[in-house]
Amino acid sequence: MRALGPVLAVLVVIALLASSAMYTVDQRQNAIVFQLGEAREIVKEPGLHFKWPLLQNVRLFDMRILTFDDAEPLRFITSEKKPLLVDSFVKWRIIDVRQYYVSVQGDEFRAATRIKQTISDGLQAEFGRRNLHDVVSGQRDDIMAEVRTKAGVDLKRIGVEIVDVRLKRVDLPQEVSESVFGRMQAERKRIANEQRSTGAAEAERIRADADRQREIILAEAYRDAQRIKGEGDARSTTVYANAFSQNPEFYSFYRSMEAYRSTFRGRDLMLLEPSSDFLRYLRDPQGRAGPQRK
Question: Residue 51 contacts by C-beta under 8 Å, 6 or more apart in sequence?
Answer without folding.
Answer: 21, 22, 23, 33, 57, 58
